[in-house]
Design a protein that fits this description.
It is a single chain. The protein has 225 residues and is an alpha+beta fold. It has two domains: 107 residues; 98 residues, Immunoglobulin-like (Sandwich). Helices cover 37% and strands 25% of the residues. Strands 3, 4, 6, 7, 8 and 9 form a six-stranded antiparallel beta sheet that branches. Strands 1-2-5 form a three-stranded antiparallel beta sheet, with no helix packed on it. A hairpin with a 6-residue loop joins strand 3 and strand 4. Helix 1 runs antiparallel to helix 2 and helix 2 runs antiparallel to helix 3. The longest helix is centred in the N-terminal third of the chain and has 59 residues. The C terminus is likely disordered.
């Protein structure tokens, strides 16, 4: 145990915490009184409580800041995705100005150099999660407010319907109805009121991959994408 008086607040508190028991054992031997040691003990206890409270407030402030940062990021992710959807909807409508007015957002500036239309995503693939959800991954950009509109078709004869959007290069579909034999997915890229063509679709099949063996072997469950 160092005998040098520390420079830090915590070190100073610990310095006296470590010595008071020995001082209290025989105050007169070191030129002190029991009253002095009792008063110091009270002040050390108060200092420790104040220090611990200050540390708790600092940690709470740090936690609150992190919560704020995450909340704002989630808000901006969804909000900017919705702005892109509104602009794309306005671009496809016959009266985009009325759409922008209804949404209370600025129309794209006519004097600005328009960006080229977004390109479709590539290498769209699927995988089955343990929960039964389908995870989609693809290649593409996420710059300049790019949003990917995710479309799904259940079975071979039903139409594609939009099931969500993503501002990243992945999406998890947790809404597969039970008993669905297969699902097809495609993406449409959205940015600044413009939309790409459809990506190449991909199919994921649920159920038996191989027929039962004639010798009585059991069929295996799997998927093909």
């Amino acid at each position: 145990m160092s005998t040098q008086f520390p420079d830090t607040i915590l070190g100073q508190i610990q310095y006296f915490e470590q010595r008071i028991p020995a001082w209290a054992a025989d105050p007169a031997a070191i030129g002190l009184t029991a009253l002095q040691i009792g008063e110091l003990q009270t002040r050390v206890t108060a200092a420790r409580a104040a220090y611990d409270a200050a540390q708790a407030i600092r940690q709470q402030s740090k936690n609150t800041t992190n919560i704020q940062r995450e909340a704002v990021a989630e808000m901006n992710t969804q909000g900017t995705a919705m702005l892109s959807l509104i602009r794309a909807f306005a671009d496809l409508s016959g009266n985009p100005a009325s759409i922008f007015d209804a949404a209370d957002i600025d129309a794209p500036s006519a004097t600005s150099t328009p960006m080229p239309p977004p390109v479709p995503a590539t290498d769209l693939s699927t995988s089955l999660e343990n929960s039964g959800a389908v995870r989609l991954k693809w290649k593409g950009t996420v710059a300049n407010g790019t949003v990917y509109s995710v479309w799904r078709r259940l079975g071979e004869n039903s139409p594609f319907v939009q099931i969500g959007t993503s501002t990243t290069k992945s999406f998890v579909d947790e809404t597969i109805p039970a008993g669905t034999p297969e699902a097809s997915y495609l993406l449409i890229t959205l940015r600044d009121g413009q939309s790409s063509g459809e990506s190449e679709p991909t199919i994921i099949r649920f159920g038996i991959m191989n027929p039962p063996a004639s010798s009585g072997g059991s069929a295996s469950l799997g998927l093909a994408a």
